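Worked Example 4.2. Consider the chain below.
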Amino acid sequence: MTPPAHAQSGHTEPGRIVIAGLGPGAEDMVTPEVQAALATATDVVGYIPYVNRIKPRSGLVLHASDNRVEVDRATHALQMAAAGRRVVVVSSGDPGVFAMASAVFEALEAGPRAWRELEVRVLPGITAMLAAAAAIGAPLGHDFAAINLSDNLKPWALIERRLQLVGEAGLAMAFYNPRSKSRPHQFARALEVLRAACGEDTLITFARDVTKPDQHLLTVALRDATPEMADMRTMVIVGTRDTRRVGTYVYTPRFAPGHQPRHQPGAQPASPPAPPSAVPSPSQSDQKED
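Applying the procedure from the previous section yields the following structure tokens:
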């Protein structure tokens, strides 16, 4: 039988790896569960801006790295955990939404089998998408899709196709990584696809630096949206044809277009069914409902 990874490395205590979300930016949006994991960590691994959010303390080593080395970062974290360290891999928002959780499991699958003995925990965080939606009102009140507009890990043609199909399906959309300096033209094309699929009157909101002191929200119709309204610090949320303004807020109704909700506000509830006139026979009561 193969000994556990920490035993192979000479350590008597098992290491562990926690993949944690730091939320959208405000420190009070870091969950208590994540705070507790950070308080007992020996090592924190992550992208430079996220590691910079962690307060240094005695016994804690910070490992910051560039944005495009996710699998290398995950491999390093697993190696340290296998050596008996208590490692926290940090992401912004939620680690499972376009972040480090998948990268860690990719490295785990490709690495030594002994790593699979490690304790791995994924701690959820408040996503930028949900923080932005809350600041706007309730634009994701009905069905929606989250799409990463970066073509680093998938072809742009696939992104366009998904935008078209989701728009035609009538779902709201939340966009991560909408527009960077290296691909400024793509978001202009995305807006063209959205206008055709969703209609030019559909509302689109640009939420920049959500939960931070410089938070800025801008809602316009798709016809008035320009590529310069978005950058990599912006969460973009596109509503459906039924998304509307109410005062300064934006919301999407909970019910599908043309569908009458079962219980309208102020409506009388339906009368309960009359009780059966006789107790069913055993042969009847034993039958399963379809």
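The two ends are 49 Å apart (CA to CA). The longest strand covers residues 16-21. Compare this with Example 4.1 before moving on.
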